[in-house]
Amino acid sequence: MSLITPDFGLLFWMTLIFAVVFFILAKFGFPVITGMVEKRSDRIEESLRKADEAEKSVAEVSERAEQIILEAKAEQARILMEATASSDAIVAAAEEKAREEASKIVEHARTEIAAEKESAMRDIRRIVAALSVEVARKVVRDELSDGNRQEAYLERLIDEVQRNSTSEKS
Questions:
Q1: What values do phi and psi take at 144, rounded to 5?
Q2: CA 101, CA 11: separation in Å to the nearest integer?
Q3: Within-domain flag for 3
């Protein structure tokens, strides 16, 4: 027996087994396979039909979306124009109110500055008067420390008072 040329008995049994397997497959296997192929074909056809419907639906939705976008752009332009006009009016009113407030603040500040200036002048006068009295007291104390100087100072004051009274009468 050779590998290249098989015996007659081997060919007979191989043919018989092939015929039995083919018969079993034809009776039970091929109908199941063809049924599954047909189901698959039907599913593919259904999917293609649904894909066509979906494509049409997408086209309709796309057209509607374009229309909505155009309407939204028009609405946006209108709203922007209204907002700009409203903004200009609000800014003008705010500027006028700010001017009025600034005027009030400046006037109030001027009043406060004048009052503070007057208060400061009073304080300065009081301090100067106190300093003058203190300096005069120290000078007079120094001047009047000895008796001869006291007499000379009194005479000089009397002379000044007499001169002032004569000059006022004239």
A1: -100, 20
A2: 118
A3: no
